[in-house]
Amino acid sequence: MKSKWLVIVILTGFFSCEDVIEVELNKAEPRLVIEASIDWLKNTSGNEQEIKLTLSAPFFDNEVPPANGATVSITNSMNTVFNFIEDANSGIYKNAEFIPVINESYNLNIVYKDEVYTATETLKSVVPIDFIEQSNEGGFSGDQIEIKAFYTDPADEENYYLFEFLSDFTPIPSLEVYEDRFTNGNQIFGFYSDEDLEAGNIVTIRNHGASESFYAFMFLLLQQGSQDSGGPFETQPASVRGNCINETISDNFPFGYFRLSEVAEVIYTVE
Amino acid sequence: MKKNVYGFLVLFLALSSIITAQEKFTLSGTITDSESNETLISVNILVPDSQTGTVTNEYGFYSLTLPAGTYAIQVSYLGYKTISETIVFNDDVTKNYKLTESAENLDEVVIEENVERLNIKKPQMSVNSLSIKTIKNMPVVLGEVDIIKSITLLPGVTNGGEGSSGFNVRGGSADQNLILLDEAIIFNSSHLFGFFSVFNPDAIKDIKLYKGGIPAKYGGRVSSVLDIYQKEGNSNEFHMNGGIGLVSSRLLAEGPIKKGKGSFLFAGRSSYAHLFLPLFDLDNTAYFYDLNTKLSYRFNNKNSIYLSGYFGRDVFEVSDSFENTYGNTVLNFRWNHLFSDKLFSNLSLIYSDYDYDLKLAFVGFDWESGIRNFNLKYDLKHYISNNFKLEYGLNSIYYKFNPGEISPIDESSGINQFKLTDKYAFENAIYVDAEHKINNKLSISYGARFSTFHRLGQDELNIYENGNAVSFNEALQIYEKAEPIGTESFERSDVIASFANIEPRLAIAYQLNDISSIKASYNRMSQYLHLLSNTSSPTPLDVWAPSGKYIEPQLLDQVAVGYFRTFKDNVFSLEVESFYKTIQNRIDYIDGANLIANDAIEQIVLNGQARAYGLEILLRKNEGRFKGWLAYTISKSEQQTPGRTPEEPGINNGEWYRTPWDKTHDISFTGSYELNRKWSVSSNFLFQTGIPATFPNGQYEYNGLTVPSYEARNSSRLSSYNRLDVAFNFNPNPDSEKRFKGNWVFSVYNLYNRRNAASISFRENSSTGANEATRLSIFGIVPSVSYNFKF
Hints:
The complex is a heterodimer. By secondary structure, chain A is mainly β. Chain A has helices at residues 2-11, 212-225; strands at residues 17-21, 32-41, 49-55, 71-76, 81-86, 92-95, 105-112, 115-124, 129-138, 144-152, 160-167, 174-179, 187-193, 202-210, 228-229, 245-246, 255-269. In chain A, the strands form 2 sheets. An 8-stranded mixed β-barrel of chain A has the order 2-3-6-5-4-7-8-17. In chain A, strands 9-10-13 form a 3-stranded antiparallel sheet, with no helix packed on it. In chain A, strand 4 (71-76) and strand 5 form a beta hairpin. The radius of gyration of chain A is 20 Å and the shape is globular. Mean pLDDT of chain A is 87; it is low at 1-14 and 227-232. Helix content of chain B is 4%, strand content 56%. Chain B is globular and about 85 Å long. Mean pLDDT of chain B is 86; it is low at 104-113. The chains are: A mainly beta, B mainly beta. The interface between A and B is large, with 90 and 94 residues. Strand 1 (17-21) of chain A pairs antiparallel with strand 52 (771-777) of chain B, so a sheet runs across the interface.
């Protein structure tokens, strides 16, 4: 859809204009936001993990508040409990003895303000990144730096990936999710291009193994971020439900997701 | 099917025999323009003494039956000299009238469009006709005359705004409009994502938009019918005309194949703004072109044939990485045959297709999709008596759908070949429609269309547990794709699913006095095709899907009532109509539905319903130096997708929500004024409630991203849309006897440069990190000039 807007903008480049305007928005009650992303970097023990709890806020607020004082734990299929303890009043809950196992199923349990939140997910494996290719005549406009991180999709299974490209010039990562429906068994790439990218920038490239339901969740979530309201190519905005359930009051559902991934990482310096 | 045809034959034979029992004779023929020999639609043939008359049909044919005697006949068409003559009805007579334009003998040039006149006597309501002259007079953005944009100035017709394609009639969606070009179905009416429409105005003769009370002759779409007729071409002498505008240029050539009998017409149009892009060092291109052709041949009074074609394409290229081509192709053969002076028939054989192709070089990916159809239509109009006319016919359409094929661009591409299953369907209909004048005050038209739809065999079709392709995850309260429990295969000749619908149509007109009448109508219609689109207005990428095992056909019921009157001897007319309609089986999509390259659409759609109601007022001035209209519509258009069981929330918790094209108030004015013989000025003014939008009601952080969370669907609105356009027409030599004639059009679109929001985006400012709302407005003030000529 982005590409269509690009064409429209090119087409009407001489006429159309964008400006920042004031809009009065409704304010919803805050919800718990669960960022329980267990990343097991290849060739590490994966023992040290953290879970971030925050609250949603009105849209024009400058920051979102942390969710303090929760009880957080993950249980594996052998009923081993990993307790996550809040680091001061940061809303970040930590555990240093976590045991990651590929294809193991884990349960997340959170008690926050007397409400119980749960989720279940499997730790997904990922293939390594084979190599990085850089082109200086890339992107839509043909003059941007683009980076392709190649990997080889396993032919014998359905795979889903979360790619993260984090450059040192911005705190906002570039995220992409991929499925292997059209690329099964092939060597294919994660794609990154940004007009501000230049030689000398350091880009951390991470590929995460993901489940099909995470793929569906993230696909939708990424659409919300660049949402246009009322535009001709708008897909209907939606409240994106993750895999976490409020067991106490089901209508007060949380945002976020409980994901466990093996992670392949390459740190690349732009040439 | 055969049985029904025989039924019709028996019916009309019975009726004919009743009529011939009395001593009556028929006057019939074709009415054409004396200069070009082009047939004229909606010419009045009046018999003042007996207070009766008729009008010519889409092919210029008329038939009038009167008891034996001597009558004064008037053939009149405004802008043309009226022919009056006395005819003795003692035998059946064929008379082909040739009308001459009357413009030059008037001091003030007043060209008026007869086709647009309000007919208060006929039961047909909710119809708007526009002549191409009126359309060409309206100010338009960048000077590009646009049929679709001009009809959005009519009451009850809107569209999603600038840069959005299609149009919405009485709260219906854009895919519910049947768009016919010379009887062929057009699947995509837009160029450049909706900035321009695919119809070259020079090649068009007339358009007619049915919003309600739709005759049984039409079917297959539930909201409206836009019936567009192309010119046949001048069969007397060779002429060319054209225009040069800022965006595109047009050229049309027409002339005789055999003088007075056969004609040809070729018209081409192409945009060329892209030729200037390299000057700005832009390595991109975007252009469109279309070609219209028509060959006509009149063998004798009883037989004429027409061969017409349309081919149009849009092309976008962004550096070498993105290439997008799409467009329609239409080929059409028609045969007009008169079985008798009372029975007119038209046989159409039509092929049309729509193709979409997208190449993304940087991911090594080529995508193709399309729809193809073969259409046979046989329509008969039987002028049984002046008080009773019967139309009947049949229609068969065979469809092939290519929902998409992905292929690698070259060897190095990491993309695997992937083909979505082709789908096939067969749609049939028979209809009969009577127009019955009960007495001088009351006229009724009644009829029905019987339509069937067969989804034919395809390679693979999923089977689901309990037939439910969408499952509901109760814990997460979300809809998910159901896992198929197997697949089944079919032969091409197998029928997977069949539907049949009887669609009654009824319209009543009661004349209160010479100048006013009230009318009422009811129509039921069915639509077997669905445009899969999750956006507010269609995009060229959207694919059509047939009804089948998991998707039911859309069914519409509409009632409309209206009051119609003319003032000051037809100088003004007023039309007030109110409508209410409901549509069953309107699909909507589950959250997160991905429509692109989806081979199992049934897994992401939920069945719902839609309704719309409103009031339309149209005040029109038909003649004089000032002509134009003021239209006001107040309406509501909503949709509901309830849960399938009490435990399920459906979409929007099962509550009614606004459709993306719901506009409460819609005011439009358009008018033109003759300043003097050389100059005329025309203007549009529009005011519309802003389109519905879904705004965020909160934000949260996830994985380093700021994510907006949204309120209930379409519960806010963009700010209102309004603009004023002005155009000046300059005719340098109105008295010139020369063959070559030219005129200039200077126009200003959006005169007061209002920034109408096309969309509002909510996002994180990449440098400050703060959230902000940005408005995208497409056209500010746009001046333009174009030059038109003919010789």
